[in-house]
Q: What sequence folds into this?
């Protein structure tokens, strides 16, 4: 399992909010998500068949399934733990490799066969694995940062003007501006 360490201990409400944001992002990409207890969820991505359906799924189409859990193990820091399964991608590449070995066994040079197999696994497994893992890590990082980390924008505590913009003026300051600073 891979882990992303949280800066602070999340409350139960924050844990649920993080999981809800991750769930929302996964459902947007077509995943079937089920909750597991208070701090976890499982998901299954749809098989991208026909192949043009993979475009709608984005970089996450290579992932078959996965688990996400928010926990602190052995008194350590709180972390978002996740595990990704690439079984459909692996199965497809094993089938392609078998076909290539059967066809390539008659080639005069076995080195060409081995180089082709290595190239196929690098291009069709390790690169998609790397990019899908990065994208999923970004989904988790964005979901946790918005909930646990401090807000960078102020809450809507200012008064609302007619144009629905939030202004941060205080009513006390308006009186001082109109009568020359409040001294007289």
A:
């Amino acid at each position: 399992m891979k882990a992303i360490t949280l800066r602070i201990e999340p409350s139960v409400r924050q844990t649920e909010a993080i999981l809800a944001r991750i769930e929302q992002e996964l459902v947007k990409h077509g995943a079937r998500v089920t909750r597991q207890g208070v701090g976890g969820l499982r998901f299954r991505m749809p098989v991208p068949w026909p192949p043009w359906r993979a475009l709608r799924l984005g970089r996450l189409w290579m992932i078959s399934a996965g688990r996400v859990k928010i926990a602190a193990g052995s008194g350590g820091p709180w972390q978002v733990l996740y595990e990704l399964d690439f079984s459909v991608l692996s199965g497809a590449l094993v089938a392609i490799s078998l076909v290539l070995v059967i066809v390539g066994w008659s080639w005069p040079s076995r080195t060409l066969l081995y180089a082709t197999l290595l190239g196929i696994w690098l291009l069709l497994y390790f690169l998609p694995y790397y990019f899908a893992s990065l994208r999923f890590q970004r989904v988790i990082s964005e979901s946790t940062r918005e909930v646990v980390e401090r807000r960078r924008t102020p809450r809507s505590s200012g008064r609302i003007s007619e144009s629905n913009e939030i202004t941060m003026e205080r009513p006390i300051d308006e009186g001082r501006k109109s009568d020359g600073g409040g001294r007289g």
